[in-house]
User: Which sequence fits this backbone?
C-alpha cells in the first residue's frame, strides 16, 4: 500500500525538520519527549489532542511553544460553566456606525486552539467546539466559514478536579485523535529544570519567547503530505484491525475502538514512521501510537474497574497477546 | 452439680434446637461473656497484633488463633456456673483459672487442636474433670448421635467468623470519604502498618462475638447430649414428683383427690413439667396408667419400686446391639487399604440413613466434617505454596520461572522443529530461488530460537522484531551477537515492511557471521 509523495521536501528533510521542531519544544518542556513526539504526530496528521494532567505540567506552555516554533496563529479559551457556543465560534453584532450587522469571529478561527479544561463547559458549548473540530467549518447566522489549515485543537482536562465538570461523551471523545497523559517529570529531569532556572539559562517563568521559529503552516502541511506517502504494508493494516477488533471482544471492556480508531491508528503510525526517519511503517510504530489513539475510545467494565484494572493495563495485555503481524 | 438449680429447661432436643438454646444463652449473658473474653484476651491480642503490625508478619496472629482453646476455657467456666445461677466475675475466673483451665489443655493445644468437636468436648476435661484413659471413653460416648453435630457447628462458626471479618472491613472502607481516594484492592495489597492493624482489629472485634457464641452453643450441645444419654430431664421430673408427693402427703391429699376426681390434675402436671408428662406416658406404655392414683392404693408397688422397675424396663435399658468402627481398629485389623475406604463410605451412608430417621433436614455430620477438613487441607496447601513462593529461605525453592518460547514471535514460526537441519543449505536454496525475504526469515528464526535457548526471556506472541532486539540488548549488553542481530533485523525490516530486499551478498555475510557466533550460543545454553 503506497502513495506518491506530493510534498516539496524529501523524506529526509521532513524527518530533519520534525526533529528540529521537537528539539525546540523539548527545550521548554523538559523531561517530556514522549509528549512532544505525540503532539507532533497529531499536528502533522491533522488530528486533535486531548491532554490530561494535573495543573502546572506545561500544557499551556506546550501549546504556546508549538505556535511559536511553527509560526501558527494561537488562541486560548478557558472553558467555564457559563461559556456560550458563540464565545467559541463567534457571533453577529450590529455596527451602529455603519448601520449594518457584521460577523465577529470567535477564537476558534485560528490554527492552534488551546481549549483549557474543556470538561468545565456545558454540553452545548462542548458540542459547538467538537462540531468545529469535525467539520473544520463554522456557521454563523447562516454564513459558513472554512478554517485555514492546519487547524488543531489541544484540549486539556484535569483528572482530579472533577467537581463542576461535564464529562465528554464517548462519541465526542472519539473526535480526538490522541489522548495524551502528561505526568510529572522524573526527578532527574526536574533537577535539571531547577538548575537551569537557578543558573539563569531559563527564566523563572518558562515561556515560549526564547524559541526560534523553525517552520510555518505550509511546512506542517508538507510534513503531513510526506506522512501520507509513507508505505504501510497490508499485513500491518491487518494487524491494526486485529488490535482494534480485539478491544471489542475483550472481557474487561464494555466499549472497544470503532472504525475511526483503526483509521487513526494507521494514519498516526505512518507519521510516527516518518518522525523515526523511515518511509515505511513497522509494527513498532503501531504499538507506539496504540495507547494515545485507543485509551479514550475504550470504556472499562465495572467488574474490571473493581478488580483494579485500567484501560492502560488492558491495552498492555492486548499488545502482548495480539500476535505480531506475519510477513 | 445440682440439676435442681439449673436456669434452663432440660429436654432431649435435636442438635439444631440445642444450638438454638445455646444462642439464647449467649443473648442472655452476652455482656458478661464479652467482658470475660476481653479480660482474658485483650492484652495478649494487643501484644501479638502489635508485633504482627510492626513486623508485617502473620505468625503472631496465628499464635493467637492457635490458642483459641485456651481463651475458650474461661467462657465455658462462666457459662457453666451462670447456668446454675452463679455469676463469677472475670477476676474470679482469672484467679481460679488453674483449677478449671489446665486439665486437658495441652492435648487441646496440640494433637486435638484441629478436632472439629473442640468446643463440644471441652466439657469432658473442664466440667467432668476426666483424665487419662477415661477421656477417650467419654469422648466415644458423647460423640454418639446426635452429638456429632459438633463438627458442623465448629465449621459454621468458623465460616461466620471469616465472613463477618471481611464484611466489617469492607463496611468500614465504604465509610471512608471518597476524598481519601482509597482504592480498596490497592489498599489490601499495600500491607502497611495501618492496614495490618485495622484488619487485625476487625478480626478481634468479630471474635468478641463469635467466640462467646461458639462456646455457648457448644455447651448447649454438650448439655443436650448428656440429657439424651443420662436422662437429666427424667431425673428432674422424678425429683419434682417426689417433692410434690411429700407435700401432698403432709397436707394436700384432699386437694389432690379433689383434682383427681375432676380429672384436672394430669393436665396441670403436664403443663407444669414436660418431663413428668414424658414419665407418665412412659408409665402408661408399661401398664402403669394408675400413676396419678398410686398413692391411694395399697396393692400397688411403692413409687420407689415403680421407678426402679421403670428404669430397668426396656424403655430405659433397651437391649441394643451397636457396632462401632474406628479407623485405627480398621487399619489394625485389616491391612488392605481398600477396606478403609469401604468402611468410611459405609459409615457415611449409615450415618446418613440414621440422620434421615431423626431429622428430615439432617446432612451427615461426618460429610460436613470431612468437607471442612478438605477445605482446611486446601488452605494449608495454599499457605505452603505461598511460603515456598515468597520465602525461599524457609526451605522452599524458587519456582521454575523459565519463560516458554511462544510458537510465533514477530510473526515468525519459532518452533525449533520447524527449522531445517542444515540452515546454510536451506538458505542457499532460497537465495538461488531469488527469495531474499525467505532467506532472511530463516536466518532470523534460527537466530531467535538459538538466542532463546541460550538465554530465555519472557517474549510474547505480540513481540515484534524490535521488541526482541531491545530485550536481548538489555540482557546481553555488548555481546558480539547484538550487532549481528541489529544488522539482521534492520535488513529484515526493510525487506519485510518496505519491500526493499537486501542484496544476496549481505545475506551471505550475515550467514557467515552467524556461523561464527552460533556455536558459542548453542553450546552455552543456560
Assistant:
Amino acid at each position: 500500500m503506497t502513495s506518491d509523495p506530493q510534498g516539496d521536501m524529501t523524506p529526509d528533510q521532513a524527518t530533519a525538520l520534525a526533529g528540529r521542531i521537537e528539539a525546540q519544544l523539548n527545550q521548554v518542556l523538559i523531561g517530556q519527549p514522549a509528549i512532544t513526539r505525540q503532539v507532533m504526530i497529531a499536528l502533522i496528521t491533522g488530528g486533535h489532542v486531548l491532554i490530561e494532567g494535573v495543573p502546572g505540567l506545561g500544557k499551556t506552555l506546550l501549546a504556546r511553544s508549538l505556535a511559536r516554533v511553527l509560526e501558527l496563529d494561537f488562541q486560548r479559551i478557558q472553558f467555564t460553566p457559563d461559556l456560550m457556543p458563540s464565545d467559541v465560534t463567534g457571533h453577529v453584532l450590529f455596527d451602529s456606525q455603519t448601520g449594518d450587522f457584521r460577523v465577529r469571529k470567535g477564537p476558534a478561527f485560528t490554527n492552534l486552539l488551546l481549549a483549557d479544561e474543556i470538561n468545565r463547559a456545558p454540553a452545548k458549548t462542548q458540542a459547538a467546539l467538537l462540531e468545529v473540530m469535525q467539520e473544520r467549518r463554522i456557521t454563523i447566522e447562516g454564513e459558513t466559514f472554512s478554517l485555514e489549515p492546519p487547524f488543531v485543537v489541544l484540549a486539556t482536562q484535569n483528572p482530579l478536579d472533577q467537581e463542576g465538570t461535564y464529562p465528554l461523551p464517548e462519541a465526542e471523545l472519539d473526535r480526538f485523535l490522541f489522548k495524551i497523559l502528561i505526568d510529572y517529570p522524573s526527578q532527574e529531569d526536574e533537577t535539571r529544570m531547577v538548575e537551569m532556572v537557578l543558573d539563569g539559562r531559563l527564566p523563572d517563568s518558562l515561556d515560549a519567547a526564547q524559541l526560534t521559529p523553525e517552520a510555518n503552516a505550509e511546512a506542517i502541511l508538507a510534513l503531513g503530505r510526506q506522512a501520507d506517502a509513507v508505505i504501510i504494508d497490508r499485513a500491518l493494516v491487518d494487524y491494526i484491525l486485529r488490535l482494534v477488533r480485539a478491544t471489542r471482544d475483550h472481557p474487561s471492556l464494555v466499549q472497544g475502538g470503532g472504525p475511526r480508531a483503526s483509521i487513526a491508528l494507521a494514519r498516526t503510525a505512518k507519521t510516527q514512521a516518518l518522525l523515526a526517519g523511515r518511509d515505511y511503517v513497522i509494527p513498532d510504530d503501531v504499538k507506539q501510537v496504540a495507547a494515545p489513539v485507543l485509551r479514550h475510545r475504550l470504556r472499562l467494565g465495572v467488574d474490571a474497574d473493581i478488580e483494579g484494572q485500567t484501560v492502560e493495563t488492558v491495552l498492555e495485555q492486548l499488545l502482548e497477546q495480539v500476535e505480531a503481524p506475519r510477513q | 452439680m445440682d440439676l435442681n438449680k439449673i436456669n434452663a429447661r432440660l429436654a432431649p432436643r435435636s442438635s439444631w434446637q440445642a444450638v438454638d438454646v445455646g444462642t439464647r444463652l449467649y443473648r442472655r449473658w452476652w455482656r458478661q461473656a464479652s467482658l470475660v473474653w476481653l479480660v482474658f484476651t485483650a492484652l495478649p491480642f494487643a501484644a501479638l497484633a502489635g508485633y504482627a503490625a510492626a513486623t508485617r508478619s502473620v505468625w503472631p496472629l496465628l499464635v493467637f488463633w492457635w490458642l483459641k482453646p485456651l481463651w475458650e476455657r474461661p467462657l465455658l467456666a462462666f457459662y457453666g456456673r451462670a447456668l446454675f445461677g452463679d455469676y463469677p466475675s472475670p477476676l474470679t475466673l482469672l484467679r481460679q483459672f488453674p483449677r478449671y483451665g489446665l486439665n486437658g489443655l495441652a492435648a487441646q493445644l496440640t494433637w486435638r487442636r484441629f478436632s472439629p468437636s473442640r468446643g463440644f468436648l471441652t466439657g469432658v476435661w473442664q466440667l467432668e474433670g476426666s483424665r487419662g484413659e477415661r477421656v477417650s471413653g467419654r469422648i466415644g460416648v458423647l460423640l454418639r448421635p446426635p452429638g456429632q453435630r459438633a463438627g458442623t457447628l465448629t465449621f459454621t462458626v468458623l465460616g461466620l467468623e471469616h465472613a463477618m471479618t471481611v464484611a466489617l472491613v469492607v463496611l468500614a472502607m465504604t465509610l471512608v470519604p471518597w476524598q481519601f481516594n482509597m482504592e480498596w484492592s490497592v489498599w489490601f495489597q499495600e500491607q502497611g502498618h495501618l492496614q495490618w492493624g485495622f484488619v487485625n482489629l476487625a478480626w478481634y472485634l468479630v471474635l468478641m462475638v463469635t467466640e462467646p457464641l461458639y462456646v455457648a452453643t457448644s455447651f448447649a450441645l454438650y448439655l443436650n447430649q448428656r440429657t439424651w444419654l443420662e436422662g437429666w430431664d427424667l431425673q428432674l421430673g422424678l425429683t419434682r414428683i417426689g417433692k410434690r408427693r411429700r407435700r401432698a402427703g403432709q397436707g394436700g391429699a384432699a386437694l389432690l383427690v379433689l383434682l383427681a376426681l375432676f380429672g384436672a390434675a394430669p393436665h396441670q402436671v403436664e403443663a407444669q413439667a414436660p418431663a413428668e408428662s414424658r414419665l407418665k406416658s412412659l408409665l402408661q406404655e408399661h401398664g402403669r396408667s394408675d400413676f396419678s392414683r398410686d398413692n391411694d392404693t395399697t396393692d400397688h408397688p411403692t413409687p420407689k419400686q415403680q421407678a426402679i422397675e421403670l428404669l430397668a424396663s426396656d424403655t430405659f435399658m433397651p437391649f441394643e446391639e451397636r457396632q462401632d468402627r474406628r479407623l485405627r481398629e480398621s487399619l489394625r485389623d485389616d491391612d488392605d487399604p481398600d477396606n478403609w475406604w469401604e468402611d468410611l463410605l459405609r459409615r457415611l451412608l449409615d450415618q446418613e440413613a440414621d440422620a434421615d430417621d431423626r431429622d428430615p433436614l439432617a446432612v451427615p455430620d461426618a460429610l460436613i466434617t470431612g468437607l471442612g477438613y478438605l477445605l482446611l487441607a486446601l488452605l494449608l496447601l495454599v499457605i505452603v505454596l505461598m511460603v515456598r513462593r515468597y520465602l525461599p529461605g524457609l526451605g522452599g525453592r524458587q519456582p521454575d520461572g523459565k519463560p516458554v518460547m511462544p510458537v510465533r514471535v514477530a510473526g515468525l514460526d519459532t518452533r525449533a522443529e520447524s527449522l531445517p537441519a542444515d540452515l546454510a543449505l536451506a538458505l542457499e536454496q532460497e537465495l538461488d530461488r531469488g527469495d531474499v525475504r525467505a532467506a532472511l526469515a530463516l536466518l532470523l528464526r534460527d537466530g531467535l530460537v538459538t538466542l532463546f535457548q541460550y538465554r530465555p526471556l519472557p517474549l510474547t506472541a505480540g513481540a515484534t522484531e524490535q521488541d526482541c532486539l531491545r530485550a536481548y540488548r538489555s540482557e546481553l549488553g555488548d555481546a558480539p551477537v547484538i550487532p549481528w542481530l541489529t544488522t539482521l533485523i534492520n535488513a529484515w525490516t526493510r525487506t519485510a515492511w518496505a519491500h526493499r530486499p537486501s542484496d544476496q551478498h549481505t545475506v551471505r555475510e550475515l550467514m557467515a557471521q552467524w556461523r561464527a557466533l552460533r556455536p558459542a550460543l548453542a553450546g552455552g545454553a543456560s
